[in-house]
């Protein structure tokens, strides 16, 4: 199982194989998770018999293989035919550019198998990714770049732009061409390109930096429920730009610190969920520094997440102290009360283990 960000282009180049987990989608408070059984039942609604060579619009039997027949109904997205496409429903507006965030639904098929090997519809969860970031298969990335908003299209993608020489475990055979049926639901414009193309002196101008960092916050928020590591990257890019911005007026300092507080808080949550407690603690310390001597108050959420990071590091007494501060701010928060129990339980396990090790050492000495 991969944890965090996956660069599919690197995986394909290196020959690494991986398994697509279609049974359990990532956490998202806005969308209910479905069970593996529910997924298997739902995915049957999206069978595509074109993959078996059955076409309703054909009256004459065609002996060619299914994807060859399908390819003849498509046009080349690339001149060499490595990606072919057919528009099922026209879209409108501009196409997504590099670094834009897109939200898509898709079904993915292999030849001679009508059941999709991956189906966001069945998971009841669109896929969100950043164009050009390497988060998805190269062919899928290129396909979406060719689409307009609300467009629905089919794409035949050759192996070197899909799962390569090695395929994907038992799901996708080596050197397999794959069919993606994609629906482009949303395009979120990024200001990353505009900012990166500015002259170096303008990159330190606060108004430019601030607008760029707000855009990064939006990207991070969109990515959080799908890929925490990608969200962390976007937040850290914003922090780096904001920390070195040149400030000329007091109100700029206020805006900088308010946004930094938000970014540090978001990073603390991300690192806690990603089980990177040391980095989480670093961002909590930055929050405390910003709040020191100011009217800004460290939130119960920040204390709570810092307590969880400290527990992961085995700093149980300090974890309880931080959690107590969270409890003082939100005494009715059930998550805080539950975390007290978790800390006590893990602390006891640690103490019991230490006793066993001490007794073993004494017995060895005897």
CATH C-level class of the largest domain is Mainly Alpha
CATH architecture descriptor name of the largest domain: Alpha Horseshoe
Helix content: 40-55%
Number of domains: 2
- Low confidence ranges: 1-6, 16-32
The CATH homology group name of the largest domain: Tetratricopeptide repeat domain
N- and C-termini, Cα separation: 45 Å
Task: Indicate the CATH topology of the largest domain.
Answer: Serine Threonine Protein Phosphatase 5, Tetratricopeptide repeat
Number of helices: 13
As a whole number of angstroms, the C-alpha radius of gyration is: 25 Å
Overall residue-averaged pLDDT value? 84
Protein name: peptidylprolyl isomerase
Domain PPIase FKBP-type: 99-188
EC number: 5.2.1.8
TPR repeats: 300-333
Secondary-structure blueprint of this entry?
Elements: H1 8-14, H2 36-43, H3 66-72, E1 75-76, E2 83-89, E3 101-110, E4 118-119, H4 120-123, E5 127-130, H5 138-145, E6 152-157, E7 178-188, H6 192-196, H7 206-224, H8 228-243, H9 250-273, H10 277-291, H11 300-312, H12 316-329, H13 334-365
Antiparallel strand pairs: 1-2, 2-6, 3-4, 3-5, 3-7, 6-7
Fold and architecture overview:
The protein has 13 helices and 7 strands. The protein is α+β, with helices and mostly antiparallel strands and 366 residues long. The chain folds into 2 domains: 67-188, Chitinase A, domain 3; 200-353, Tetratricopeptide repeat domain (Serine Threonine Protein Phosphatase 5, Tetratricopeptide repeat). α7 runs parallel beside α9, α11 packs antiparallel against α12 and α11 packs parallel to α13. The radius of gyration is 25 Å and the shape is globular. The relative contact order is 0.09. Mean pLDDT is 84; it is low at 1-6 and 16-32. Belongs to the FKBP6 family. One of its GO terms (cellular component) is cytoplasm.
